[in-house]
Amino acid sequence: MTTSYALPAELTIYAVGALRPEWQQWVTKLPKRRGKASGAAIFEVDAAAVLEVDGAGVQLLVALSHSLAARRRTLRLVNVGQTLASACEVLGLSAHLLGTGEPS
Amino acid sequence: MTDSDHDSSFIAEALPAFIEEARGHLQSLEALLLELESDPANRELLDALFRSAHTIKGSAGIFGVLAVVEFTHHVETLLDQLRAGKQALTPDLSTLLLECSDQIRALIDAAQSGQADDPAMCAAREEIVLRLQAAYGYTAPAQPASSDAVPHVAAAAGLWRIDVRFGSELFRNGMDPVAILSYLRGLGTFADAAGDAGAIPDLDAIDPESCYLACRFSLDSTEPRERIESAFSFVRDDCTLTIEAPAMATPPPAQLPAKMGSEPVRCKEPAKSVDDASYIRVQADRLDAVINLLGELVIASAGASLLARQTRQSTLIEANQQIGMLVEEIRDSTLQLRMVPIGDTFARFRRMVRDIAAKLGKDIALEIRGGDTELDKSVVEHIVDPLMHLVRNALDHGIEMPDDRVLAGKPAQGKLTLSACHEAGSILMRIADDGRGIDRQKVLARARERGLVAQDATLTDAQIVRLIFEPGFSTVDQVTDLSGRGVGMDVVRRNIEALRGSIELSSEPGRGSCIEIRLPLTLAIIDGFLVGVGPSKFIFPLESVIEVIEGREVAVQCDDFGRKVAGLRGQLLPVVDLRRLYELESAPVERSSIVVIRTGTLRFGVLVDVLLGQHQTVIKPLARIFGGLRGISGSSILGNGEVALIFDVAALGERASETPGEKRLKPAAVRELP
Known about the structure:
By secondary structure, chain A is an alpha/beta fold.
């Protein structure tokens, strides 16, 4: 599986405006490439580069996951760093975005 | 904190509010359960259900109604498993939960009356608790269930429950929820965070710079409330924040399954609408007093403008017009205060339909449409019983047993539809079923048996169906313990007509029946159209007037039955001559006018002397002795003190289509009323 999708270093309110159309492209290009897919397929995104995260960034990731879900894809973030994990956790979105409960 | 710390007088004062609120939650609990039956996997409904039970338990805890807390705890545990997806909501569970809601209601009633728990109820409750425990797989028998249910015990943990929904402008104001929540995390043990992923739109719909975030979490902290609140101080005006102090945090940690806390909590409409709507409770009689005064004001203002017109001073007339307009606006908005959506009334029938269908062994789906249609509260109160009767009838007699339905080529599940909509100043309610319809031959045979129609009379289908509403048309051999409660359809019709409404039934054999009830929106004030015949004044509800043919020679002829008809654009229009109908003793005028009235599908004309125009009409009831007066529904006092009679256009229409009879009453006598 090749990971051709990656998150930028800055996942904040300053970046979301530009990120949204880019991610929309990811989603709209999907069906042609995976026409045969049945059931929810995994859509892997590399989060290794992420350095800065805020609520707007996390929120846009949720939006991405919703859009992917509409095309029967499940968002999977890989190489999630501490910053992103912690932001998801405090917003109570770890389960949704990272597929994990809060670390106990 | 113990109960004794509470000021007992405060508790006594606030208890009624708690009871009222708990009843409201019970009602929504029941509604949600019924809704879930058709959609058992609906996560949002399950969440709302859980929250209703949770709120009941929480506030019962504050008021020390421990029996409710203890019992609801078991309900909550089961609901929790349902929403965590550990169990599916089976019809059996649903029945059990409905029984639970009855139990909670009984407990709340007991709390209200201050009664001691009666042993029979206690036993019934214990039995339900056992079933609940069996349902959720009770695992820790050593620990008494009541102790971990009582919130005050859980309080020691210092567990704050915080629920925050950030405002949409938050990001643009330079704030970041992540920073705020991270700060809070530093204050204690942060756990069970559940964000509302469902509130965030998808990529296409999202405004990436608006904030959609919401989160609920618990914080085990010894910090004071101020400290926790201060974390939100920069966004205080831009978020909805609920902080539940440890004493109120009802779910003890042991009871929260780890999975549930981390799952996103969806924002749920039913519960939200309860939270968001803010109401002021007003005593109904105070509101009625205002409306009565308003009625007087309308009359006084009409009197003032009449006097002003007589002075011929244009400035005075103008000032009075201004007042008149304002009065009209106040009238509309005051009447609006009394308007309530019919949906709550309809929703009561869900439970009834479910129970009755189960009892009869029928499978019936209830569909409710137009629940947000509003009408006057007093109309709603009066319509409940007739509606209930009609619904029962439809369930019992209308819809067949599943086997019979299949044989008749219909789906096994019967359908009952309750709908409401506005139509020309009145509200139209429909009760439709897809059952067997009305057997006309049977109805006719019975009517003949009872002597309601002559043996040899031939009746149209519509006339036969209408016989059902006749007094004396008893349905003896159809009596069951459901609908044979001594209330005949004639009582239903009388109740509805007493509200100035009308009822109509249409039925197609084998396909079902539909009952249409038309009711006025309000009982107090209407827009009227004033006319005069000789010295008498009459008022038509304005919405029933479609046109007037003014002061022309209208060729009014008599047809073969002695009924009057007039030609209107090539069509014959039945015409009611008021002078003849009510034997008004005044000389006919040369040029009379015809007011064309519509009621339902019927169109007819009314012959009058003068047209006096639109008039705000405050309806006063007629004295009882005029109860038999057909065609008149009430009276109104005009600005100059004269009395005008208000027409019941539906009844007048019936008179228009019948042959002139013997019996006539003189409405002119009403003018002697005070």
